[in-house]
Amino acid sequence: MATIPPFTQSDLEALANVLGDTSDGLTGSEIHHFLLVAKIDDVDPAITKRHRLFNAFATFQNKYRCANNIINFVKEVLAPSRYVENKAEFETRRAAVNRVLAFEGLMITEAGGVAKTEKASTITEVQLRVEGLKNKLTQQNAHSALFHYCNEELLANNYFHAVFEANKGLFHRIKELSGVAADGNKLIEQVFSSNPILIINNFSSQSERDEHTGFCNMLKGLCGMFRNPEAHEPKVEWNIGEQDALEILGIISYCHRRLDKAQQIRTA
């Protein structure tokens, strides 16, 4: 691991507060164990957990002028294998840690690794990065096309317009791949009909043709939900929450993955 510059004192304090929280933080014995594993001296084992962790972290940094072992401590605490029976606790603790690490340009991934990010400078920026819709889609390894077509809406946690723009982007990509200028269901019919322009598999066996038809119907469903006149009603009249947005965007992401391998079999 490359040398990680020392954390600011305020970030060290915040990290110690999260991990040493009275109700949700580590126990005293866990703190001792993880400090030992991370090779950080437990300099004040008799004091409160928050201060105990801060003193251990600060003493290490003052001596070695880096934060490597502190990150190792965090990685040990957030090793996914420790939370097999309690994923909710893992996500809650990881989110709390990442709110602090965002100010240092770091984050703990869902796999328990460490990734570099741009340093956050505001609380709002941290909240959107750690808790926002875009971050959750990133964790799910959503298709890059989603972010291309609705990145601004995702960053703003605008569920309605994120879904709307992502869906428009999906149909725009179908137009580009097929060369067909039609819109809506006419586009889907021309491109994925029984005499298709694009195919998502070899389109030779009955099961492959059935799969292709199912994909075509899925696209028609998305078209019907989000491209008809009702989709242009005011946002307040079209209620959509975060979970709905995540699931719909997941379907759109899946469609993009199938388009990645689509073959053109005739000219429009």
Summarize the structure.
It is built from twelve helices and four strands, in the order αααααββαααααβααβ. By secondary structure, the chain is mainly alpha-helical.
Shape: elongated
- Rg, rounded, reads 24 Å
First and last CA, distance: 53 Å
Q: Mean pLDDT, rounded to whole units?
A: 87
Helix content: 55-70%
- Total of helices: 12
Give the percentage of residues in beta strands: under 5%
Could you give the count of β-strands?
4
Strand order of the largest sheet: 1-2
Identify low-pLDDT runs: none
Biggest sheet: strands, sense, closure? 2 strands, antiparallel
- Which structural class matches the secondary elements? mainly alpha
| Pattern of helices and strands | HHHHHEEHHHHHEHHE
Provide an overview of this structure.
The protein is mainly α. Helices cover about 60% and strands about 5% of the residues. It has twelve helices and four strands. The protein has helices at about 10-20, 30-35, 50-65, 70-75, 85-100, 125-130, 135-140, 145-155, 160-180, 185-190, 205-225, 240-260; strands spanning about 105-110, 115, 200, 265. The strands form two sheets. A two-stranded antiparallel sheet has the order 1-2. A two-stranded antiparallel ribbon has the order 3-4. A hairpin with a 5-residue loop joins strand 1 and strand 2. The longest helix is centred in the C-terminal third of the chain and has 21 residues, at about 205-225. The radius of gyration is 24 Å and the shape is elongated. The relative contact order is 0.09. The mean pLDDT is about 85.
